[in-house]
Amino acid sequence: MPETHDRAPSYAHGASAVPLLGETIGQNLERTVARVPDTDAVVSVQQGIRLSYGQFLEAVQEVARGLMAFGIQPGDRVGIWSPNNAEWAILQYATAAMGAILVNVNPAYRTSELAYALGQSGVSTLVLAPRFRSADYLDMLDQVAGELPSLQRRVVLGPDTPAGAVGWEELREAAARVPADRLRERASLLQFDDPINIQYTSGTTGFPKGATLSHHNILNNGFFIGEGCRYTEADRVAIPVPLYHCFGMVLGNLACTTHGAAMVYPSEAFDPAATLGAVQAERCTSLYGVPTMFIAELEHPRFAEFDL
Fold first, then answer.
1. What's the CA gap between 268 and 47, in Å, rounded?
2. How far is 131 from 185, CA to CA, in rounded Å?
3. Residue 63 class from Cβ within 10 Å (0-12 exposed, 13-18 middle, 19+ buried)?
C-alpha cells in the first residue's frame, strides 16, 4: 500500500525558510494596501501622476470593473502595447484582479511580430498607446487587423480616441455598470495557480515564443526579489526598464507591491538624464537597469550635477 499523509500539500518547499505566497496578485495587493494605504505606490514622472497605495487600488478596481462591463471573462486575453506609464501598471493589476490574462506586447514590435503575438495568444481586447517614437501604433494595427479574427476591441490611451476604438476614460466610466460586490465575487473564484500573464520571449530562430505564467509564478518571483533587496515601504524603486518585460512588471512592480515600496517610472522609455533626475527628485533607494543603461548614466555629461 502506498504511504498516505493527512496533511494538505504544502507550498513551503525548497531551500528557503520563507514560504511561498499562496494567494492571488489581487489578494496580495489588498493586504499591502491595508498595511500602507497612504504610502506612494506609483510615481509616473513624465505624466505627473502620483498615486498612494489606496488610490492605486481604487484605480485598479475601477479598471477591473470596466473590463467586466465590456464582457471580458476570466481567461480572456487582454493585450497591452505601450511604453511605460501609470496605465500599464493599473491594467496589469486590474486584469489580475478580475481574472483576465494580460498579454505583453513589445513596444518595438513591427507589424509581422505584432500580428503573430496577438493572433497566437488570441487577444480579444488590446489596450494600446496611439504611437511611440516613430511608430504609429494605430496605423500598424490597422494593417494587420484583418489577420486577427479574435480581436474584438481596441482601447486607446491618451485624449484622442479614433473612430471604432474605445478610450481609456470610457473604460474607466464603464465601471459604473458593475457594482463592487460583483468584482469581489469574481475575485473570490480565482485560484493562485490560474494563468494570468503571457510573455513573449524571442528564441534563436523563428517567431517569439509565448510563455504562460500564473499568479503563483510571478507573484512569488517578485516577492523574493523584494526579499533579496530587503525592500520595505521606505523604499522607492526607479524602474526605467520596460514594463512589457519581466524585469519591469515582475522584478519591478511586483517586488514593490509585495513590500509596499514605490514604483517610480522616470520616462516612457529609457533616457539617462530623465532617470538620474527621477532618482534625485523622488529620492529613490534602488535603481534598475542593464549595463548599457548604467554606462549611459555614468557617462552622461551632467552626471555630477545630480544628487543621488
1. 9
2. 36
3. buried
CA distances from 261 to 53, 168, 232, 233, 254 (A): 9, 26, 6, 4, 10
User: Measured in Å, how far apart are the chain's first and last C-alpha atoms?
Assistant: 65
Report CA-CA distances (Å) from 150 to 111, 122, 306. 17, 6, 49
pLDDT given at position 205: 72
What are the backbone dihedrals phi and psi of residue 194, each rounded to the nearest 5 degrees, phi first? -65, 145
Q: Which of 162, 116, 117 is nearest to 136 (CA)?
A: 162
Positions of the chain with pLDDT under 70: 1-15, 203-204
With contact defined as beta carbons under 8 Å apart, do 59 and 90 qualify? Answer: yes
- Find all residues with CB under 8 Å of 95, minimum gap 6, and list them: 64, 67, 78, 101, 102, 196
Grid coordinates given for 35: 498595511
Distance from C-alpha of 289 to C-alpha of 248, rounded to nearest angstrom: 10
The four Cα atoms 142, 88, 275, 42 give a dihedral, to 10 degrees, of 160
Contact present, 148 and 125 (Cβ < 8 Å): no
The set of cell numbers assigned to 36 is: 500602507
Per the listing, cell 460586490 goes with: 181
For residue 166, give the 3-state DSSP assignment. strand
Adjacency order of strands within the sheet including 101-104: 166-167, 153-156, 123-128, 77-81, 101-104, 195-201, 209-214
Model pTM?
A: 0.94
CA distance 67 to 73: 8
Q: Distance between CA atoms of 220 and 171, rounded to whole angstroms?
A: 30
Q: How far is CA 48 from CA 45, 51, 227, 274, in A?
A: 5, 10, 29, 13
DSSP 78-139: EEEE-SS-HHHHHHHHHHHHHTPEEEE--TT--HHHHHHHHHHHTEEEEEE-SEETTEEHHH
Summarised one tens digit per residue, pLDDT across range 89-140 is 999 999 999 999 999 999 999 999 999 999 999 999 999 999 999 999 999 9
